[in-house]
Amino acid sequence: MPSPLIWRAIWAVSIAVIVAVVAFVAVPYFASNRIVRDRIAWEMSAWSGFRVTIEGTPEISIWPQFRATLSGVTLSKWSDDKAPPVMQAERVDIDLSAMAALRGDVVFSGVQLIKPIFRIQPAEHGLLLPPAPSGGRVARAIDAARETVKANPDKPNAVRLPTEGFGSIEFRDGRVIASIDGAEEDVVTGLSGMVDWEALNTSGSVSASGTWRGENVSVEANSPQPMLLLAGGAAPFTVSLKAPPANFSFEGNGNFSAKSFFDGQAKFSAPSLRRALWWLRAGIAPGATTGPVSVTSKVTGNTDRVKFDNAEINVDKNPGTGALDLSFSEGLPVISGTLAFDTVNLAAFLAAFTTNAATPGDLDAIDTSFADRFNLDLRLSAAHATAGPIQLADVAATAQVKTGLAVFDISDAAAFGGNIQAGVRFDLRPEGTQVEMKLLASDVNGADFASAAGMTRLMPTGTGTVSLILKGPGKSWNSILQNADGSASATFGPGNLTSLNLPAFLKRTDEGGFFALDEVSDGTLPIDGAELKANIAKGVARIDRAEAKSGQTKIWLSGIVPYAGRGLALSGGIVQPKPAAQPAPAPQPTPTDQPDQAQPGTAPDGQTETGQTTAATPPPATPPAPATPGKDGNEATFFVGGTWTTPFVSPIARRKAGE
Fold this sequence. Notes:
This protein is of the alpha+beta class. The chain has a 30-stranded mixed β-sheet that branches. It has a two-stranded antiparallel sheet with strand order 24-26. It is 16% helix and 48% strand. A hairpin with a 6-residue loop joins strand 29 and strand 30. The relative contact order is 0.04. The protein is built from 9 helices and 32 strands.
């Protein structure tokens, strides 16, 4: 016979099986009749603080997990029956505790929201947030935590924090809708993620992904004490955002109270600064893209002011360091600070605010809307810099933007063997934008300056000074240059005049008929100096003086050069000195003056042996005075037409000296 112990084991197993069968049969009964009907909606409302409604009869499944499936779930504010739901979901799956269900209780261990819609609205500080609940278990726990923080703000007692369980909330294929000015629009679509927070006094994390402003974005955040953060206390936290236009991460301490602050290490990177600013709606048009940018910095501040200390900045693969200050206390955000680079691309920096030329001669519109979005006061220095083809050294520059005004200045830089100063100023007036551009190049090498400016014809190569001032209205670089007023001047010392074969040029003018300047550009003319003075009115440069001197030869030009059409309408001349006069031959004695035969004792020079002069030779002629160019020299005059790229020359006359 079996021993009593064996019989007891058999009875225990039998009873366990019977209990399991009874529980398996009883749980759906209790769930469908007590939990679902009476408790789920109430428990969700008590937990969230919103009024919960459920359409239809929930479905209960036992295996593999005890779960209630709800359809048509909405959470609404208790205080406003007519307001749209704060959250609504096509389906909600709730993981329940089976043992609690047998007792008639509801204990959530996890919630899955399928195709939820979350509604957010502008808060007092301008951010879009969901409406706050008027009560509920979580809200009361946060209020209790606030009291703990108030008791000791510097070091709250974490032991006194609420210990209620929270669980996890998963959401799939959701949307975030903003209600602004009575109209609803999608803020985030395709939202999926999870909130994982086992208990209110433990660590928690959030991860989410979706489409925001047309880009796929993923966000992750976690903290060892999230309840302290929600209660306005200080706690460590990390947050990261990843998207094609920009990536951002922060790790440090902070709080989210009315006197919020944060202190930690931040990183920001973007493949294109301009694209990132446009995506973040910083008031920058998409336009042309600039190179990648990254920033790593210690960050401290609050909602009114943010300081970036020991910042390491990399702009278009050019590293730099500096300090920045971002203030929100005024009407517009204010960015100020200093940046130092070893090498920097100034054109790329400016292109973040104004568009670049798509092709040479095709200058795009200027975007100045950024001046209405933020103020800027930035000091920039660089050991080396580039501005298009121009190479600079020891650069000191400033960028200033404030309401109605934007100024970009290079106050000092070494270039072309000398120094340059340059700037562009945008005056944003109600009647239209006024743009002023200035350039002063001192003691520069003419050949290097001409090469950088793209001017390879008839340019002096000596050391000189160049000044250019332009000012005019317009919404694009083309319209500004077509309507600009100003002046241009240049003075160069000894050097060469490039792309001019003077003998060939004079030969062609003698032959007559027009010819392309390229046909006589295979030479270089040494010059003693060159000078240019021109006035600019409505985009047309009128050359008042353009001269180059080579010994006693002078080359001059005058006329107009319009920007529109890139045409030329110039007259010019080449003045050469009058040929030196040859000495007159000595007069020969006439036959009547000569004796029939040579007299004895007469010396070959016409003197007798006694020293008496019989026939003196006239003294040599006096050398001619130097010719005065333009007065008593030869001058070849001509007309220059065509375009900047294809000029042609048409001889007018060849005037001889004395004519």
